[in-house]
Every structure is written in structure tokens, then in C-alpha cells.
């Protein structure tokens, strides 16, 4: 591993940063493609090879991909349909094609559990599906991580003294901690058995979103109360205030009203080790911060 270099694209993000850190801790050399090198150094510290640029800069992308053994994609599109397509589809396509041309050994990518032809009913899910298809057709070996909801997203629903429960979220979800996911991504670079697979990454326990928010507030944020709001109401509020983020969130949460988990994590757990962090443990750590 000490001679292998992995490029992380999106390595300063909420879910890309722990992957970069885990790869480095496991002995890989880690390269980052970032728009702001100074910000990246402040977030991650020393010991990373940093290339300035982004996925829209083909010269910088090819420079970052040159000589690496693998590349992990952790990009986030939206809120507009054009931006979802640009990031989740076209950027993935361009990275995969360049990786193939430059002889990169494998590409790993974060996707979502509700990505399939049947479930492609939003701009995000359609773009992710197209991105997955572009990666598969590129000819470069790949691993697609179809993850359930991350525990780290819970604080993002908090505004002031309330946490927004958006829509009728009836489906039990296997909440996963970013640290478990990062470990599994790093492990995938240590076995060829993970190549050319779509792996479902689920945490150890399943809770509805309402229950997860209740647990989070009771343990980590006792002054915050759960505040339900329908997807229709959020959409109307977004239109009236011209808030594209709210409109996009209403569409996203409507998607998850319709679709629960239907993949199996058995193969991912067997190949990469099962996640161990429970939601309660994660909330307790958040209380300590």
C-alpha cells in the first residue's frame, strides 16, 4: 500500500474528507484535486499531494490522475437539474474516461441506495444513474458504493431550535457513520474481489428518520425539537421565496418517501467488514464535542 497512490476527488467534503484520512492512515499515498489548496491543508493537514483545479478543468484533472493507482469520486451536485447532471453524470463520465486512458487501476464512487431505472424519478437519481452507467461503460474497473443515509446528515436538518422532518418518511433506514464508510472504501483498495461491483453500504441498525431525529435530539441536541413539514409545503415555500435549495430538498425527500432500502449489504460486509458504529454511539460522540 505504501507505493500506491489514490486520488480523492471531493476530498474536502463531508464524506470525502474521512475517506482521504482513512486511506492515508492505512498507508496509501493520497492525492487531492481541490479548488482551494490552502483550505484543503487547513482541513486535512500535511501529508497530502495536492493538485489545484476541479473536474471542469480537463488539464488539471489529467494531471491529478497521472500516475495514480485509483481514484475515489465523492461529488455533490444540485440544486438545479443542470448542476446535478454536470456533477453526478458528466463529471463522473469525464473522470472515468480519463482514468481509462491514463491506465488508472480502479475507480470508486459514492452513490445512493435508491438508484435504479425504476427509481430514476428525480434530477439527482437520474443523474446518478447516468453517472453509474458511464463509469461501467468506460472499461475502467470500478466499485460503486450505494450507501444508505449518513448519520452526519442529521445536523444539516437543524435550523435554530428545530430539526425538520420533511415528508412522510416511513421507511426504516440503516444509518451509517462516515467513519465506517471510509474504512470500507479504503478496504476496497486492498482486495480485487470488490472490483466491478455495486455494493450496498448499510449501518448496523435500522430506524425511521423520525426515530433517528428523536434519538439525535435527545442525546446530542436536547434544546432542539423535531418539527414535521410536508414535502408539498416545503415546495410551496421554496417557490414563494424563490429558494431553490428548499425546492430541491422537497423533491429529494419526496423521492425517499417513495423508496426504501431494497438492496442487501451482505456482500459489502463480507468483502470489506461490516459497519459497527451505532446511531446511539455516534450521537454520544456528538454530545461530547
Task: Describe the overall structure.
The protein is of the alpha/beta class. The chain is 45% helix and 18% strand. The strands form 3 sheets. Strands 3-2-1-4-5-6-10 form a 7-stranded parallel β-sheet, with helices on both faces. The protein has a 3-stranded mixed β-sheet with strand order 7-8-12. Helix 1 crosses helix 6 and helix 4 packs parallel to helix 5. The longest helix is centred in the first third of the chain and has 21 residues. It is globular and about 50 Å long.
Secondary-structure blueprint of this entry?
Layout: E1 5-9, H1 16-25, E2 29-34, H2 37-44, E3 49-52, H3 58-65, E4 70-73, H4 81-101, E5 106-112, H5 123-138, E6 142-147, E7 158-159, E8 162-166, E9 173-174, H6 178-188, E10 197-201, E11 206-207, H7 209-220, E12 225-229, H8 231-241, H9 244-258, H10 266-272, H11 279-288
Parallel strand pairs: 1-2, 1-4, 2-3, 4-5, 5-6, 6-10, 8-12
Antiparallel strand pairs: 7-8, 9-11
